[in-house]
Automatic annotation (TrEMBL):
Name of this protein: Syncollin
Keyword terms: Signal
A Pfam family per the record: Syncollin
Signal peptide: 1-23
Organism: Pogona vitticeps
The keyword Signal appears for this protein: yes
Domain of life: Eukaryota
GO BP term (any one): exocytosis
Gene Ontology, cellular component aspect: zymogen granule membrane
InterPro entries: Syncollin
Cited Gene3D superfamilies: Crystallins
Length: 136
């Protein structure tokens, strides 16, 4: 039986982890378009109880300074994970037209929005209906 600490196991596992075989949220420094321009945030429609499988599903790329009082319908109240780029912040609202509860997500990965409280009884999973993204 192969031990988790055996050199053979580590020799196989480490390159797979480095190659990103298991999906996980991108690093905030990696948020760029194919042409190299900056992306302020990425919003994802799926997450998982397993952190290495979060930031999945449909992806909405949010450019810097984008102000959306109405999230596009395929993403309205369907965002479950998000990543905010370095030196950026994403302000979100729970109701259309920038109404309801609000929260600011600063630079970082937020793989499971159900871990972030929205008032006493709610959380931010499937609750984003408007946003503004700003970078310095």
């Amino acid at each position: 039986m192969t031990s988790l600490r055996s050199p053979l196991f580590l020799a196989i596992l480490l390159p797979l982890l480095a190659a990103g075989v298991w999906a996980e949220c991108p690093a905030p420094t990696d948020l760029k378009n194919a042409d190299g321009t900056k992306v302020c945030a990425k919003l994802y429609t799926e997450n998982s109880p397993y952190y290495d499988q979060c930031c999945a599903g449909d992806v909405l790329l949010v450019p810097p300074e984008e102000d959306q009082p109405y999230v596009p319908s395929p993403f309205n109240n369907k965002v479950s994970s998000l990543v905010v780029a370095q030196k950026c912040q994403l302000v979100v609202w729970s109701s259309k037209g920038k109404g309801g509860k609000t929260r600011t997500f600063k630079t970082g990965s937020y793989p499971r929005l159900q871990e972030y409280r929205r008032g006493i009884f709610g959380d931010w999973n499937n609750a984003i209906s408007a946003y503004y993204c700003k970078c310095t």
